[in-house]
Structure formats: structure tokens, C-alpha cells
Specification:
The protein has about 160 residues and is α/β, with parallel strands linked by helices. The protein has a single domain, classed as Lumazine/riboflavin synthase (Rossmann fold, 3-Layer(aba) Sandwich), CATH 3.40.50.960. It is built from five helices and four strands. Helix 1 links the parallel strand 1 and strand 2. The longest helix has 20 residues. The chain is globular and about 45 Å long.
Amino acid sequence: MADEKPGELELDGSGRRIAVVAARFNASVVDPMLESALATLARHGVARDAIDVFRVPGSFDLPVVARRAAQSLTPDAVIALGAVIRGETPHFDYVSGECAAGLQRAALETGVPMIFGVLTTNTDEQAVVRADPQQGDKGGDAARAALELAAVLDRVR
């Protein structure tokens, strides 16, 4: 497909089930990532009714819902989308670090890939560029990573 880079597995999403968990906080950044992820999954053949989308308050909340989705829905992958933008306090470090660690634990506990589509940037401007489907397209990247990891795990089984 056109989205693939040389050397990648063919990203065929037909028959795949994907869960997407997206933070509402920083919605102006997260929403374009969500839209791009959904469009990318559709382009690669994932049926719309095979995609479950859950919204959570913020990035810190992503791991618990991602883990529950992995356990309850048995998706091929879970895509976690959020944005943590550095401020004047250490809040950034706690939220981004615990979000990453929680998603990793959830992946290891469930065996379901948890795609870390959480932007961790120093400025709002950096986040906007990375989220924009015409520039950084981190939402599309997360969707492609989900399909690639699902294919790799199929090969390992």
C-alpha cells in the first residue's frame, strides 16, 4: 500500500479488531490524531464496526481503559492516543511516565499490543505539528504500528 515504507510487512487490516482509547484533554491535538488513525485503519481494510473507540478524561487514564479493552474485547491491538505538553511544573513527567509505564504493563499482562500514540512535547506548537495528518501524522503512524504488530504476532503464533 502507499502508506507502507520499504521493508515493512503488508498492512492488511481485513478481519482485524482494533480498540482505540483517546484522551479528551488537549482535544485540539488528540482529535486530529484520532481522525487520522481511523482513516488509516479504514484505508488498510479494517471494518468500521471492528473498531471500538473509547474517550477518557486525560492521558493518565489511558492505561486502565486500554487494559480493560484488551481483556474484554480481545482486539488485535489497542491504540492509545493523547498529548502531554510540558508546563511549568513536574506534572508532565508524572503523567507521561506513568502513562507509558501503564500501557507497557497492560501490553505485557494481556499480550495485546498497546500502541503508544501519546505525544510528549515541550510546546503546543510541537504537538500541533506532530498531530497534523499533513505533517507529523502521529495518529496514522499509530494505526500503522498497530497493524504491523498484529501481523508480527500472527507470525510468532
